[in-house]
Amino acid sequence: MNKDSKKKIILIVGAVMLVLALALGIMISRSYSANEDESDNVPDDTQIITPDQHEQELLQYKEEWTALHNINNDYIGDIIFDSGLLRVSVVQAKSVFKEDGEMYKFYTENGSLVTDPSGYTGNDVYIWTYWKTGEYDYNDHGGSTFMDYRNEINDQNLIIYGHHFSVWNDETRQKAFTPLERLLEEENYQNNRYVTLLLANEVRKYELVAVYNFDATDDYYYENMQYWRTSYNYDDYTDTVDDSYYDRYIDAVKQHALYPTGVELSNTDKTLTLQTCISGHTGELFEILVLKEISSEPY
């Protein structure tokens, strides 16, 4: 796929995410603060939890995951900011066709039912379709927060797209990925740096490395900051391998981060990338969060 095609994909995904999203889920109460020692991957004032309490927490996670998966088998898990900033469910369609060969029921932005799947990918399934009902939902929930259709759960980079609501559509600033706009400001970083990804049989912990704005009008970003790669050194659009791309990406992120976090990213790290839009810059600027995996625990 050429550069223009890549631009078209990014612009389409970004534009549709500006105004709609699913409602913010249950907020968790535990809050982490800044970690002054960067060699330690957990907050220094984390609430002390006994082994029994930890087992109960894992059991609760399992029950929550199972209940949501029973609603829709495409449910992947929940993104949970440990500060309580947001909690949102994530789904994934690998294709416009289900495993049994049946075509998904999904919609365009204006609510038209898609009947010809030509030109659509799994990412289109949930942009305007609410995952709990399978129906078009423009105002109440919008589309859904979804993982890139190309991702496998153990990929080097997991990419998740979430809607951003305009003020007129969400005065609370709490729907979908809208709360991430707070992380455009450095003052909100320390209290919101740790994230839990609740998966089927695994709880992963991530630390926020950088926040940057992806400028969709500048070729530099398309060439050096391709956050949509599932494996940084491999471009699956062109089927080419570049062993040094991850290093170049890390350098570019460090250069264009909105503020320093003191958290280093190496070319052996696994990452979670969150993309949403920025108010007033439809199709031009996207907010990108880069988080690195710091722990993983089965349950």
Q: How many domains, as an integer? A: 1
Instruction: Tell me the β content.
Output: 15-25%
CATH C-level name: Mainly Beta
What distance lies between the first and last C-alpha atoms, to the nearest angstrom? Answer: 40 Å
Mean pLDDT: 84
Count of beta strands: 12
Largest sheet: 8 strands, mixed
Q: Based on helices, strands and strand pairing, what is the structural class?
A: alpha+beta
State the fourth-level CATH superfamily. Answer: Sortase
> Which of globular, elongated, flat, extended, rod-shaped describes the shape?
globular
CATH-assigned fold name: Sortase, Chain: A
Strand order of the largest sheet: 2-1-7-8-12-11-6-5
Total helical elements: 4
- Element order, helices and strands? HHEEEEEEEEHEEHEE
Uncertain segments of ≥5 residues (pLDDT<50)?
A: 15-45
- Which architecture per CATH? Beta Barrel
- Give helix % range: 10-25%
Could you walk me through the main structural features you see in this protein, from its secondary elements to its overall organization?
Helices cover 18% and strands 22% of the residues. The protein has a single domain (3-30, 50-298), classed as Sortase, Chain: A (Beta Barrel), CATH 2.40.260. It has four helices and twelve strands. The model is unreliable at 15-45 (pLDDT under 50). The strands form three sheets. It has an eight-stranded mixed β-sheet. The protein has a two-stranded antiparallel sheet with strand order 3-4. The chain has a two-stranded antiparallel sheet with strand order 9-10. 37% of the residues are buried. With 299 residues, the protein is α+β, with helices and mostly antiparallel strands. The longest helix is centred in the first third of the chain and has 21 residues, at 51-71. The protein is globular and about 50 Å long.
